[in-house]
Amino acid sequence: MKIGRRSMTKLLAGAVPAAWMSRASAWQKPRPIAPGAFQPTWDSLKQYQAPEWFRDAKFGIWAHWTAQCVPEQGDWYARNMYIQGSAQNKFHVARYGHPSKFGFMELDNLWKAEKWEPDALMQLYVKAGAKYFFTLANHHDNFDCYASTHHAWNSVRVGPKKDIVGIWAATARKHGLRVGVSNHSAHAWHWFQTAYGYDPEGPLAGVRYDGFATKEQGKGKWWEGLDPQQLYVGPSMVMPDGITTIKAAQQWHDQHDRKWTEEPPPNNAAFVDNWFLRCQELVDKYQPDVLYFDNTELPLGQAGLDIAAHFYNANMKNHGGRLEAVLNSKGLTPDHTGTMVLDIERGRADRILPAAWQTDTCIGEWHYRRSLFENHRYKTADTVVKTLIDIVSKNGNLLLSIPVRADGTIDDDEQKLLAGLAAWMPANREAIFGTRPFTVFGEGAPDVKGSANFNENAARPYTAEDIRFTVKGRTLYAFALAWPSAGKITIKTLAKGSPGYPGEVAKVELLGSKGALTFVRDTSGLVVDLPEQKPHDYAYALKITPA
279 by DSSP, 3-state: which? Predict the structure, then answer.
C-alpha cells in the first residue's frame, strides 16, 4: 500500500496548541514533593527496601480496564485504529465509521461499566488467592480512570461517570487486600500521534483524523467544554518525507517510539508537568500500596524521580515512619537496582534474584478481546499455578491480569480459570504465601532464558523432573510440577550428606492428602512414595519437616 507524496502522519503546520508546545514550565523551581528521607535522586532512592508484606503476598490480580475494552478487539486499539490497513482500523471503520468522524474520544464516551459489580469480582479474586489488587489508573490513551482535577478527560466526567480507581481501591481494602495502581500515561505524548494522521489512500485519502479536533467544535455535543487536544496530547512527532509504504511508516514509528519513550517530550514541558500533577494526585488521593510505571526505570526524566521520592515519603508519613510502599518499573540498570521493585513483563527470572521482584502478565491480551470461539485461548489455571510456583521459588511475585469487558463483567472462561485457582489454593497456600527462597530454586533443565521481559512464550512444558522449592521457617516445601508416573519422586537436591540440607528429615507430607508419606534418603536423593490418587489437578507440594 503506497502512501503517496505526503507522509502518512505528517502534521499540519500551525495546528499545535501553544499550551502544548511551550517550553515554559509551570515548575521553574523544584516540584513540591512530600518531605522525608527520600530525595528525588537515584542515589537517595538506593536506600529503599521492599516491605515484608509484599514479599509475603506473592500473588496479585489486575483489572487492566479502560475504554479500549469497548470494541473488544484487544491491545493498543486507541493507537492502531488510526493506522489504515491494520486489523483494528478495518474493524473500526466497519463498526463505528471513519476515524475523522468517530475517533477514540467517542469510545471514551461509550464506556459505561453498566454491569460492574466490584464486590462480587473481588470475592472471586480473594478466593483465587490474591493478596493485592491492581487497578489501572490510565493507559497510553491518556484517559484518567479516577477523579482527576488536573485532567478533564477522566472517568468521573466522561464515560462511566464513576471514580473507577476509588471504587476498586475501597472494595479491595474492604476485603483485606493491598492496593496497587498502574500509570501508563507517560507514553501518551508519542503513542497517540497516529490520531493526527490520515488515510494515505482510498476515498478519504488526506482527510485528517479527529486528533485535530478543537474545543470550539464541541459546542452542542456531548463533549462540550472538553478540549480534545488535552486527550490526544498535541502533535509532537513529524514523520520525514521519503516514507513510501505503510510498513516503512510503522517501522519508523516503532523506532522512534523506542528511542523517545523514556525521554521528556521535546518542546512539551507542559505535558511533563501535567503528568506529574496527575500522578501526584493519584498517590495522595488513593494512597496506594503499590505504584506501577509501564516504563523502563522511571518515566519522563526528573519528573519520574520526583514522583518516586514523593510516593516513598508520603507512604512513610501515612504509616508512622515505616516504608510500606512498592514502586514497580522495568529494565533497571545494575546501577539503579534496588531503588524499586523490578517488574518483568510477560516474563520471569531464570534464577533466584537477591531482591524481591515481580512478573506482570495477562491470561490473554491486556485489553479485552472478544473470541469467535468458546475457548478464548487464555492461560489455563494449570499454567498460572506452575508459573506462580516458579516465580515464588525465585523470590518473585506474580501479578496476573484478568481482562474486564467494557460493561464491567468477566466472561465464563475467566470465571472457570479463577475457580481452578480457588480449588487449588486451600491445600497449597501454606507453601506459597509468607515463604522465602531455598538455597536453590529447584531442579530440572532450564525453563526460561535470562531474566527478561517477554520470555514466557519460550518456556518449555514442565515434567515430573521439575521441582521448585520454598521455605517457611525450618519447613521446606518441594513442588513437583507434574505428577510422577512411577508412583514415587526423587528429590536429588536433598540427597543424604548434601551441604544444602545437612540435617535429617523427620516427616514428609503431601499437601491436600492425609497422613505422612514413606520415604528413603540416600545418596541419590530424598525418595518419596506418593499415594495412588492425586490430591488435585495441578502442581503438588511436599511438606518436608526437619528432625
Answer: helix
In angstroms, the Cα distances linking 226 to 223, 232, 330 are 5, 12, 34
| 134: Cβ contacts below 8 Å, ≥ 6 apart | 60, 61, 62, 63, 179, 180, 181, 182, 290, 292, 399, 401
Query: What does 469-502 look like in DSSP terms, one character per residue?
Result: EEEETTEEEEEESS--TTSEEEEGGG-TT-TTS-
Q: For cell 477514540, what's the residue?
A: 104
Q: How many residues does the chain have?
A: 547
Residues forming beta bridges with residue 291, ordered by sequence position: 181, 327
Q: Are strands 525-529 and 475-480 parallel, antiparallel or unpaired?
A: unpaired
SS3 content of the chain, % helix, strand, coil (to 5): 30, 20, 50
Burial of 61-88, coded b for 16+ CB within 10 Å and e otherwise, reads bbbbbbbbbbbbbbbbbbbbbbbbebeb
Q: What angle do CA 289, 293, 294 make, to 5 degrees?
A: 140
Q: How far apart are CA 236 and CA 23, in angstroms?
A: 13
Give me the amino acid identity at 116.
W
Q: What is the pLDDT of residue 26?
A: 43
**221-225, 258-262, 516-520: which has the minimum mean pLDDT?**
258-262
Task: Give CA separation, 337 vs 8, 77, 297, in Å.
Answer: 40, 33, 9
> Running DSSP on this structure, what letter comes out for residue 420?
H
| Model confidence pLDDT, tens digit, residues 53-66 | 999 999 999 999 99
The whole-angstrom separation of Cα 435 and Cα 480 is 17
Return the closest-CA partner of residue 143 out of 164, 169, 170, 122: 164
Are 147 and 169 a contacting pair, CB within 8 Å?
Answer: no
pLDDT tens string 401-434 = 999 999 999 999 999 999 999 999 999 999 999 9
Instruction: Scan for cell 505503510, then name that residue.
Output: 246
Q: What is the DSSP string of 362-391?
A: ESS-SS-B--SSS---PPPHHHHHHHHHHH
pLDDT in tens, 77-118: 999 999 999 999 999 999 999 999 999 999 999 999 999 999
Q: Residue 373: what pLDDT?
A: 61
Q: For residue 5, name the pLDDT band (cuts at 50, 70, 90).
A: very low
d(CA 124, CA 151): 33
Are 516 and 476 in contact, with CB atoms under 8 Å apart? no
255 Rama class: left (phi>0) / alpha (psi -120 to 50) / beta: alpha
